[in-house]
Amino acid sequence: MRAACVAVVLAVAGLLTVSCNGLVDPSNNVTETFSGSVSPQGYDFHLFSVSKNGEITIKVTGLAPIDNQPIGLIWAQSSGAACDGQVLQSAAASLNQPSPIVGQIFQGTYCVLVYDLGILSSAETYTVSVSHP
Predict the structure, then answer these.
(1) Model pTM?
(2) CA angle at residue 101 from 16 to 126, to 5 degrees?
(3) Residue 9 lies inside a defined structural domain of this protein
């Protein structure tokens, strides 16, 4: 009897996971690439939508003219028109280093904001890769 109850609970949990846009294996994520420029004391942001639950990683993959200078990254929720929601993670990031932003993400609209940590003396162009379900 106990085994039957466990089987029923597992089956229901499996159905709920499938019907609620269950978690996507990170190896099946899509990668969106965003580029822009950040001026001293400035920022730039990009919106993206996530259709399923899973894992997110955000990494700096391009930085010029000074490629060894850290920049700030913020991953936040978005209302859909601006990067104006709750901050989910914030980190200093360097070119081609392990992703400083990693975590679970749910279906919705988000943004990645790239900003000067207060050390830029001239504009930096950047490229960030956002991997999400």
Answers:
(1) 0.80
(2) 130
(3) no
